[in-house]
């Protein structure tokens, strides 16, 4: 099963009324649960929703501080922002920019990538999910920090397509 298949399954479930989905094929297991924040709803995931609501406060503040400086530098080519492709997170998890703490980063700004280039890892439920660029181009900006919690659909990278 390819990451594109998983992304499509996530999109379909997100747009449906299904709250939980489990799939198993040739030793690959996929389990997806929607995180509902409806008052009075009891699920097995309340601790996760509490973490997701509390933890992003600090990373978002860091993100804003880091992002303010590059935006002032990029005000001139802001017109080209429309032409940039966003690589987004296919799931909720923790963003890792390198395969291990002592390894080099997968990619950084100004690196050229191909469709199958691994750009990062998103850890979800102790599973390390490699995220591919899905487009040929050049990384313009890394939008998240290493170790930051990311949401489904959150932009991770901006890529200038070739």
Characterise this structure:
The chain has 162 residues and is an alpha+beta fold. The chain has two domains: 1-54, no CATH class; 59-162, RNA polymerase II/Efflux pump adaptor protein, barrel-sandwich hybrid domain (OB fold (Dihydrolipoamide Acetyltransferase, E2P)). Helices cover 23% and strands 31% of the residues. The chain contains three helices and ten strands; from the N terminus they run αββααββββββββ. The protein has helices at 3-14, 46-54, 57-73, and strands at 20-25, 28-33, 85-88, 93-96, 112-113, 118-124, 127-132, 137-142, 149-150, 155-161. The strands form three sheets. A four-stranded antiparallel beta sheet has the order 3-10-8-5, with no helix packed on it. The protein has a four-stranded antiparallel beta sheet with strand order 7-6-4-9, with no helix packed on it. Strand 1 and strand 2 form a beta hairpin.
What is the fold's blueprint, element by element?
Elements (H helix, E strand, L loop, with lengths): L2 H12 L5 E6 L2 E6 L12 H9 L2 H17 L11 E4 L4 E4 L15 E2 L4 E7 L2 E6 L4 E6 L6 E2 L4 E7 L1
Antiparallel strand pairs: 1-2, 3-10, 4-6, 4-9, 5-8, 6-7, 8-10
């Amino acid at each position: 099963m390819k990451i594109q298949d998983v992304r499509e399954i996530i999109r379909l479930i997100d747009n449906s009324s299904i709250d939980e989905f489990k799939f198993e094929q040739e030793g690959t297991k996929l389990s997806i649960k929607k995180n509902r924040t409806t008052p009075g709803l009891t699920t097995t995931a309340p601790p996760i929703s509490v973490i997701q609501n509390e933890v992003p406060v600090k990373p978002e503040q860091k993100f804003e501080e880091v992002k303010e400086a590059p935006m002032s530098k990029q005000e001139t080519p802001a017109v080209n922002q429309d032409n940039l492709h966003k690589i987004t997170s296919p799931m909720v998890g923790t963003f890792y920019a390198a395969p291990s703490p002592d390894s080099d980063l997968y990619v950084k700004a100004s690196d050229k990538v191909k469709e199958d280039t691994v750009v990062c890892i998103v850890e979800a439920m102790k599973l390390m999910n490699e995220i591919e660029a899905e487009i040929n181009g050049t990384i313009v900006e890394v939008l998240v920090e290493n170790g930051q919690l990311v949401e489904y659909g959150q932009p991770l990278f901006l890529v200038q397509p070739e």
